[in-house]
Amino acid sequence: MKKIALILSLCALCGGSALAQRGVEGIRKSSDYQTTPDSRNNGFGIKGGWNSSDFRGDDKKNYTDDANRQAFHAGAYAQFGFSPQTSIQVEALYSRQGFKAASAYRPNTGSYTTHLDYIQVPVMFVYNFVDNVSVHVGPQVSLLVNAKENGQQVNVSDRNYNSLDYGAVGGIEARVGPARVGGRYVLSLANIYNDPKMENGMATPDGHLNNIKNSLIQVYVGFGFSQ
Are 75 and 108 in contact (CB under 8 A)? Predict the structure, then answer.
């Protein structure tokens, strides 16, 4: 009887040790997939998702019937951790943006659709305020690589578009293991058009239609690979 009790005690001890090594069953934390406490904020990955773009600025009141463009973005990122809570994340994204609107100063022209595609490079400070949830804030620079008006391809410089955009990004992200999902807002600070007296290559009355900037909401999913 003593031998049986001793054997049962040893089995219980081994079972408890195995459970301790395996960890708690269920959804694992992002840090469970890494080897060191701060390595969860290191690595690279891919991401993509939904865009809802519009425009903002002092002259938005001079447009009518404006509507968002629903499109997508996709790209890759690299993350460099400094501690279990902080890191820097750099991304390169292809982002389809634009808007639909009519000029209040040209009542006979009706609404027209503007498609603007950018290469975005945000550089963000990432702070994990809990283990799997982080806030992202930082600057962004974008290069306009494609423009269409009412479905027709146009030359960026000929139509007076500003090929360089810049601004700020802010958002929140949640992670489950190597997967992540998040949302952000991109606040552009550069005008869509270069010359305040020009729009789509044509002069505008007193430049009332040009002080406008991109406005963008992005929702995404991604998959990360640790270093």
Answer: no
Question: Can you tell me whether residue 122 is helix, strand or coil?
Answer: strand
Q: For position 72, which CATH number holds? A: 2.40.160.20
3-state secondary structure at position 60: helix
Which runs of consecutive H residues, i.e. helices, occur in the chain? Answer: 2-22
- Walk along the chain (227 residues) in steps of 10 and give the mean pLDDT of each run: 43 42 47 52 94 91 86 97 93 96 70 92 96 96 94 87 96 94 97 70 55 95 85
Within-domain flag for 5 = no
C-alpha–C-alpha distance, residues 181 and 6, integer Å: 50
Backbone angles phi, psi at 109, to 5 degrees: -90, -25
Global pTM?
Answer: 0.78
Bridging pattern class, strands 86-103 and 63-81? antiparallel
H or E, element range at 44: strand 43-56
Q: What's the total number of domains in the chain? A: 1
49 and 221 in contact (C-beta within 8 Å)? yes
Residue 95 domain-assigned (yes or no): yes
- Cα torsion 192, 196, 198, 203: sign: positive
Q: Does 8 reside within a domain?
A: no
Please, which residues have CB within 8 angstroms of residue 193's CB and are 6 or more apart in sequence?
160, 161, 162, 199, 210, 212
Per-residue pLDDT at 84: 86
- Whether residue 182 is contained in a domain is answered as yes
Per the structure, the complete domain to which residue 194 belongs is given by: 30-225
